[in-house]
Design brief:
By secondary structure, the chain is α/β, with parallel strands linked by helices. It is 43% helix and 18% strand. The chain has 11 helices and 13 strands. α1 (16-27) links the parallel β1 (7-11) and β2 (31-36). The two termini are 30 Å apart.
């Protein structure tokens, strides 16, 4: 690391992943600029030394975003069934717009969040295809880079708990035998600190996950265990999901892309990344049952 502490710009700071990274970097004393569309969506504006209001999908609003910045971190992406904006507008073009600003400003290091098994998944899922194209553009940019390929995060798994609490039944794609090791955003933030502080760790693509492995069925069972109820689990065949995706494609491309993403995960026996961190999914679930928000449940671990 240079003698002068680096200045870091975080894109995606209002989301679960970027918000966790923002929290950890603030706690470590880094100077941080956050890109956001709405300051009110930040977990804590006081964690930021500078707030840049702009839209990743509108390059004219990003002028000057990376001026004076040494390192860019981006987890920009959408995971919504809303029809607009599309995956290609946000996950792909939005990140390329940020990359262009970074290159123009002479940023030295770009850290990006892709997906585990992205090159394989890209054949089936446009989400993975979009993010893999961005990752390749970053690698070819001439900047130092770190591409993280996570298996998934705790906020993804809270759906199991919500279904168990609200519906009394959890639905799995297939038998739920595929294995993952979901990750806390704060554990991930600590991994980001490592690649910022140690140049020897740069220019790598790293698959990452949490410290515990679960099958999807075990996560569903854990959700019922936490709320003190007997598990009620139903299954949806992967081929039915694939058919649903095809039916939705002409009307809602985002829904189609996300369903294909879930289909790939369900069909893959092992979606585990290199284990990092110490935070446990059961503790996260128990914090949620106390009425904490997802961000608060993570922070309390």
């Amino acid at each position: 690391m240079s003698e002068k502490p680096p200045r870091i710009m975080i894109a995606g700071a209002t989301g679960y992943i970027g918000g966790g990274v923002l929290q950890v970097l603030h706690q470590k004393g880094f100077w941080i600029r956050a890109l956001c569309r709405d300051k009110g969506r930040l977990r804590n504006p006081d964690w930021c030394d500078d707030i840049f209001v702009g839209h990743a999908t509108r390059p004219e609003t990003l002028k000057g975003l990376c001026e004076g910045i040494d390192i860019v971190f981006s987890s920009i992406g959408i995971r919504s069934f809303k029809r607009k904006p599309t995956i290609w507008e946000v996950d792909y073009q939005g990140n390329l717009n940020i990359l262009q600003e970074a290159k123009h400003a002479g940023v030295k290091h770009f850290i990006f969040v892709s997906v585990l098994r992205g090159s394989e998944m890209a054949r089936l899922s446009p989400v993975a295809a979009a993010r893999e194209r961005v990752a390749q553009a970053i690698i070819e940019s001439g900047m130092d880079y770190n591409i993280f390929a996570p298996t998934g995060f705790f906020n993804d798994e809270q759906v199991f708990l919500a279904e168990a609490q609200q519906k009394g039944v959890v639905r799995l794609i297939g038998e739920g035998s595929g294995v993952i090791n979901p990750l806390s955003a704060l554990d991930f933030g600590e991994e980001v600190v490592k690649v910022i502080e140690d140049p020897e760790l740069r220019n790598q693509v790293k698959p990452v996950g949490g410290c515990e492995k679960f099958s999807h069925r075990q996560i569903a069972e854990l959700a019922f265990q936490v709320i003190g109820k007997e598990p009620r689990i139903k299954t949806i065949s992967a081929w039915r999901l694939a058919l649903l995706a095809l039916l939705l494609r002409p009307f809602n491309y985002n829904a189609y892309t996300l369903i294909k993403f879930f289909e790939f995960i369900a069909r893959t026996p092992d979606m585990t990344g290199e284990p990092i961190g110490r935070r446990r999914l059961e503790d996260f679930f128990r914090n949620l049952t106390k009425g904490l928000s997802i961000a608060e449940a993570d922070s309390a671990l």
